[in-house]
């Protein structure tokens, strides 16, 4: 059966790293068909399932916040085609090798409060650190593609993956002033988020900080140095420039801003970062949005936000938080195809290759290659022959002789 006539969402239903389908909990989704349309406070929102088109892009541009359900690579690829963000902040899984529970409170029939617990997100990597690094490499490549020419990436990690990801990010975005001159694209600096709270240890130094790596796509960037109270006696009562160690407590259990999403970052941290690295009106992206802290900070500072996550629970939380606590009145939402780049089959195993356009739901193949010239077609990037189509991404679909398929989404068709 030709792939073009297949239901693509079925073919590309999201799977986790082990290949198992990602659980889609009915009722919790911010993107369930109908939920957005029914909400009068979200005039920019469309029903999931609508075909994106030029007016959808318009909706996104007018919306304060756009929610994107999908893998981080798909989120970044879509942004590259629609509007390049001035700032990408990302707080991905840290390679903790554990899963994070979501604790929920609800009332039973008798009105008693009951506590339920289930997985929020999984940071276990059965194939080890190499698979984590490979996944993050794809995210960094997509991020480099999608950033505005004068845009910044803030990569929030901890001591586990930080040195490895810094090497990858230096390779992909450039070593910048780490190894070259102070205007070179790429690495700019390393922030330490010193969060104070947490456990202690008698075996080692208690861990009290995360690392935030700052990269720029080009030689120009936005930076507004944040100010903080001076501590020296000489400058008492005055302000000084905020140094690169940020002393901001993590969120305590009773804090009003606590949403219940594990690993939620404090608003004060995100407000500081968004304010320093962008201008009012800019688009700020977070492809690992969790509870939507980046979106809340962006809205408070008069920026727009594009928030992506693979978890529908996370997006439901973002939506709730932004509409209820932040007074957002323009929210658009789209479900993306699971479009992380996957390795195409080896040329001698390629059964066929199609090149076409892909929307949130459909793949429209406009060119097909048979097995004979498929390898050549793949290597000469045939999608270059396809004119861009507003609101759609250009993609290639390959199938090997065993019927396994790979979908590659090209971030930039021109
Ligand atoms: C550390 S949490 C982000 C917390 C967020 N900064 C906040 O303040 O709430 C990481 C998030 O990444 C999401 N995630 C994990 N793998 C992902 C992937 N491949 N693409 C997109 N999101 C992913 C998880 O569902 C989780 O919500």
Q: How far do the termini sit from each other?
A: 30 Å
Question: Could you describe the largest sheet, including whether it forms a barrel?
Answer: 9 strands, mixed
List the quaternary state of the chains: single chain
Number of helices: 10
Morphology call: globular
Note the run of SSEs as H and E.
HHEHEEEHEHHEEEEEHEHEHEEEHEE
Q: Beta-strand level of the residues, as a percent range? A: 25-35%
Radius of gyration: 22 Å
- Total strands: the figure is 17
> Low-confidence segments, ≥5 residues, pLDDT <50?
1-56
Mean pLDDT: 78
User: What is the SS-derived class?
Assistant: alpha/beta
Query: How much helix is in the residues?
Result: 10-25%
Strand order of the largest sheet: 10-6-7-5-2-11-12-1-13
The ligands bound in this entry are:
S-adenosylmethionine
What keywords describe this structure?
single chain; 414 residues; alpha/beta; nine-stranded mixed beta sheet; four-stranded antiparallel beta sheet; 17 strands; disordered N terminus; binds S-adenosylmethionine
What does this structure look like?
Helix content is 24%, strand content 25%. By secondary structure, it is of the alpha/beta class. The strands form 4 sheets. A 9-stranded mixed beta sheet has the order 10-6-7-5-2-11-12-1-13, sandwiched between helices. S-adenosylmethionine (SAM) is lined by residues 71-72, 91-93, 121, 261, 263-265, 287-288, 290-291, 293, 308-311, 314.
Chain-wise SSE layout:
Elements: H1 8-11, H2 54-62, E1 65-69, H3 72-82, E2 87-90, E3 99-107, E4 113-122, H4 129-146, E5 152-157, H5 162-173, H6 176-179, E6 186-194, E7 209-216, E8 227-229, E9 239-241, E10 245-247, H7 267-277, E11 283-286, H8 293-300, E12 304-309, H9 312-324, E13 331-335, E14 350-358, E15 363-369, H10 371-379, E16 393-400, E17 405-410
Parallel strand pairs: 1-12, 1-13, 2-5, 2-11, 6-10, 11-12
Antiparallel strand pairs: 3-4, 5-7, 6-7, 8-9, 14-15, 14-16, 16-17
Helix pairs in contact: 3-4, 4-5, 7-8
The chain binds S-adenosylmethionine (SAM).
S-adenosylmethionine is lined by residues 71-72, 91-93, 121, 261, 263-265, 287-288, 290-291, 293, 308-311, 314.
